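*** Fold description ***
***
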Amino acid sequence: MRIGIGFDAHKFTGGKPLILGGVEIPFRFGLEGHSDADVVAHAIMDAILGAIAAGDIGQHFPDTDEEYRNISSMVLLSRVGRILSERGFRVGNIDCVAVLEEPKVSPYREEMREKIAGALEIEKDKVGLKASTTEGLGFTGRREGVAAYAVVLVEEADERLSTSD
């Protein structure tokens, strides 16, 4: 077994939808970023890549590559899941916390868990997701953006997938 930790943060911006955990959440701002700026997915991807010592999402999906402009982070999460499988591992469980003052994400939690599990082709009960505030402290407390932390446990899989599949 191996453990990885991931973190991501993006500031709010106008003119983009707010996407967290693959779900569009109605809000007056979205998050600024090259892709859809889904901090929840990004933190999970970095945690997975870290657990298998495979770098980070910036190495795999650089923001200098136009292929990734406005791409769904669920597509990227699926690709990270493939890297995980190719290296001979599978997700044991994921625990993620989104840090923001608003909007409330609890009404979207189950859909977010389903999207994350679907992208990684794992059971939903392996995906823990929560939200917290910073009680007005820091950039999230000032409502300037959203941050997310993730921890993942990966286990050796029974068999490795061929890279030619």
